[in-house]
């Protein structure tokens, strides 16, 4: 009887495991995969440049898709600080003695944070052993992320709108 009982237990565990895997597969199918392309027609047209709110919408797509920002900056136990109010908190960060960048305003700080993330590392989010001087975040303008200048600017507009900061039209960068 011992072998039959062990066989039944194995079968029960196998069925349970397959059921759990099936449930995770069903849940995962409801979430779309990260997009690798982003509304390039809207981003590439300086003559018909999108309005700030449209740029913010495009920025949200980049943030959650190609930029993969949400992978680290969102959710419970995020590996990077949340960015809900970063466009409003920048002035405190610029005054922090740990700040090593050159930004003077929100736009400069947001741009610098994406292209030179080690200019300011939020306490507790630096590379282990770096005393929060080195950011684990890559420069988003380079591979593996490789955002274009327009995509970076669109994400900046998205972060400003998200923080309740009025977006502005940036004619120099087409948004």
List the defining traits of the structure above.
elongated; Cytochrome Bc1 Complex, Chain D, domain 2; 47% helix; disordered C terminus; mainly alpha; 175 residues; 2 domains
CATH architecture of the largest domain: Orthogonal Bundle
Derived structural class: mainly alpha
Number of strands: 0
Instruction: Please work out how many helical segments DSSP would assign.
Output: 7
The topology string of helices and strands comes to HHHHHHH
Strand fraction equals under 5%
Q: Supply the CATH class of the largest domain.
A: Mainly Alpha
Low-confidence parts: 32-38, 171-175
Shape verdict? elongated
Task: Name the CATH superfamily classification of the largest domain.
Answer: Cytochrome c-like domain
Terminal-residue CA separation:
75 Å
Helix content: 40-55%
Largest sheet: none
Give the overall average pLDDT.
83
Q: Please state the CA-atom Rg, rounded to the nearest Å.
A: 22 Å
Oligomer: single chain
The CATH topology label of the largest domain is Cytochrome Bc1 Complex, Chain D, domain 2
Overall structural domain count: 2
Structure description:
This protein is an all-alpha fold and 175 residues long. It folds into 2 domains: 1-31; 35-173, Cytochrome c-like domain (Cytochrome Bc1 Complex, Chain D, domain 2). The chain has 7 helices and no strands. The longest helix has 28 residues, at 2-29.
């Amino acid at each position: 009887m011992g072998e039959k009982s062990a066989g039944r237990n194995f079968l029960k565990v196998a069925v349970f495991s397959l059921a759990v895997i099936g449930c995770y597969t069903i849940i995962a199918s409801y979430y779309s995969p990260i997009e690798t392309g982003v509304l390039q027609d809207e981003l590439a047209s300086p003559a018909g440049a999108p309005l700030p709110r449209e740029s913010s919408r495009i920025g949200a797509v980049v943030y959650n898709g190609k930029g993969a920002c949400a992978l680290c900056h969102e959710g419970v136990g995020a590996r990077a600080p949340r960015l809900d109010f970063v466009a409003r908190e920048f002035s405190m960060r610029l005054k922090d003695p740990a700040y090593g960048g050159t930004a003077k305003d929100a736009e400069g700080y947001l741009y610098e944070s994406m292209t030179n993330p080690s200019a300011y590392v939020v306490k507790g989010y630096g590379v282990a052993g770096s005393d929060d001087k080195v950011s684990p975040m890559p420069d988003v303008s380079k591979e593996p992320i490789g955002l274009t200048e327009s995509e970076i600017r669109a994400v900046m507009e998205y972060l400003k709108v998200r923080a309740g900061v009025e977006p502005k039209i940036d004619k120099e960068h087409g948004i």
